[in-house]
Amino acid sequence: MRTALVLGGTGMLAGCAGQLLERGWRVVLPSRTRPLMADDGPGRAARASISRGHRPTWVRADWARPADLAAEVADELQGHPVNLVVAWVHTSYRASVLTAVRHLLAEGAPVVEVHTCAPVPDPVLQHPTQQVLLGHFSHDASKRTSRAVLDAVERALEGRPPSLHHEDVR
Question: Which of 101, 104, 107, 111 is nearest to 131 (CA)?
Answer without folding.
Answer: 111
